[in-house]
Write a sequence for this structure.
């Protein structure tokens, strides 16, 4: 177990998908939210929260409420960092169904080799990276909070440019596959089939 709390980012509007992504059913019979929750609870020593927009809270999952509503995934990360009591926060977007718990172990090991890292995130060949399946240090909270307070349309990349970040190369491109559209979802389901 890592000295980390966790947050599942499940607050997107799912416009391109046409239905809530967190409720899409996986082959195990659960949904994407349950799958992401399982990944984080398997690796985090501390509590795991869900950041989401639904007005009806789920008694099954403790939730954090965005203090900067409408500002996307960074608002969910900020809300969780404001509650975080451990050194690190494991962040996992609900639309990344192939991220395994061992990715966070690899990221944590990398964080121990890099002093003063604020964000440790995976990258795959070709330069694609994923800060929404990453470790965020509690020390990043004040920078993120100030950034959100002064931004109308925050981009994850913009805030990461203000923080000491460490990219960790991984050789599993499928781990970072996003499910944003019905076609993405069909491709994900095909990958799960034997």
């Amino acid at each position: 177990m890592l000295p980390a709390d966790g947050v599942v980012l499940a607050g997107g509007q799912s416009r391109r998908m046409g239905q809530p992504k967190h409720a899409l059913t996986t082959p195990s019979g659960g949904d994407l939210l349950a799958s992401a929750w399982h990944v984080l609870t398997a690796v985090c020593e501390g509590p795991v929260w869900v950041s989401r927009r639904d007005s009806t809270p789920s008694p099954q999952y403790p939730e954090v409420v965005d203090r900067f509503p409408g500002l996307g995934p960074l608002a969910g990360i900020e809300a969780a960092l404001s509650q975080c009591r451990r050194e690190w926060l494991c962040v996992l977007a609900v639309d990344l169904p192939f991220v395994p718990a061992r990715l966070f172990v690899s990221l944590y090991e990398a964080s121990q080799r890099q002093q003063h890292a604020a964000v440790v995130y995976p990258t795959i060949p070709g330069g694609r990276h994923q800060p929404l399946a990453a470790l965020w240090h509690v020390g990043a909270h004040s920078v993120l909070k100030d950034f959100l307070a002064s931004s109308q349309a925050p981009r994850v990349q913009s805030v990461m440019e203000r923080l000491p970040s460490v990219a960790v190369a991984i050789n599993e491109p499928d781990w970072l596959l996003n499910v944003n559209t019905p076609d993405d979802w069909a491709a994900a389901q095909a990958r799960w089939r034997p």
In short: The longest strand covers residues 4-9. Residues 101-113 form the longest helix (13 residues). The beta strands are 4-9, 48-51, 63-64, 88-93, 119-123, 133-137, 165-169.
